Amino acid sequence: MNKLISLALLLFLALQLSAQEKEKKFKVEIHGFVGVNGYYDSRQSVTARNGNIYLFPKPASLDSEGNDINSIGNFDVDAAFSRFNIGVSGPEVFGAKSFAFIEGDFLGDKSPDHQDVQFRLRHAFIRLNWDKTSLLVGQYWHPLFITDNFPRTVNLSCGTPYHPLNRQPMVRLGYQISERIEGIGFIMTQNDFADKGMSKGFENSYVPEMALQFKYKQNDFFAGVTGGYKALRPELVDPNTGAITKETAKGHYFAGSLKKGIGPITLKTEALYTAGNTNLVMLGGFAEKDNNTPEREYTAIKNFAFWADIESNAEKVKPGILIGYTQNLGAIDKAVPLSGFTIGGNIANMYSVVPRVIFMATPKIWFGLEWMYVVAAYGDSYDEYAKPIDLTNYTNNRITASMRYSF
Question: Is omega for the bond preceding 161 within 30 degrees of 0, making it cis?
Answer without folding.
Answer: yes
